[in-house]
NAD dependent epimerase/dehydratase family protein (Primorskyibacter flagellatus), 285 residues
Amino acid sequence: MTQIKRALLLGAGGKLGTMFRAAWENAPPPGFELVSIFRDPVTPEGGVRWQPGDGPLQVGPVHAVIALWGVTPGQRADLSDNGILAIEAQTLAHQLNAERVLHCSSAAIYKPSLHPLSEDIPGDPQNDYGRAKLEMEHAVADWYAAHPYGPKPCLMRIGNVAGADSLFATMRASPHVTLDRFADGQGPRRSYIAPQDFLHALVGLLRCPLDDAPFLVNMSAPKATSMQAIAEAAGCDIAWKEASENANALVELDTTRLQKIAPLPMSSADPDRLLETWRSRAETQ
């Protein structure tokens, strides 16, 4: 009989954590059990309330820690807290004898280019959020260098998660969307990933033999998606404005490394695929 592996989810009440839990509940990965950790005083049934400083977390054996907590732009918090939370996740995983920790980094650590961005490109963030995430990556690398016996970290450089980015927030609020138009007459293209495909990719990282688990991995569909195509597929009206010289026409992640671990089809970048979960949530609200 296969032993069930328990994964501890930090940040279960956040935007990405909530979407991840919904995807997990809709299609539970065989062989795994999810233990959701909330920092909010009120937790959903089955969840566990805990935050750093609360003392030992009593949850039993844990195979891996999924650290989806963090600080994003616009929140009333210090972006440098991303590094603090990452080290908290490593320390907690060490205390629980977990073998690995999956961390949320971001495509924002890269300088946008007209070519796909691979994990081998040195980080060159262009905004405070990207700089905070790169500092977080360095802090995790330093921690692991000082604790070579683990747990082993994996830094997931995540693209736009469908339903969690600014375009979807705009579409949720209004049927009218304004997009940048670039010199070629086109709008922005971004690397997206649907929540259900994010789950698939993350479970692939959980299943991956520890020796083969990457320290850095880009997380997105295998090709970029036009934001115009997403808005049109959602039935939105589009207004155009000329792109400023600081705007980026393309942010595309090279997913060669991810494709060897948890392959996603090219169709995972299709607008209808990216809208699938967003539409189903809208229908139930």
Summary: The CA atoms of residues 83 and 139 lie 6 Å apart.
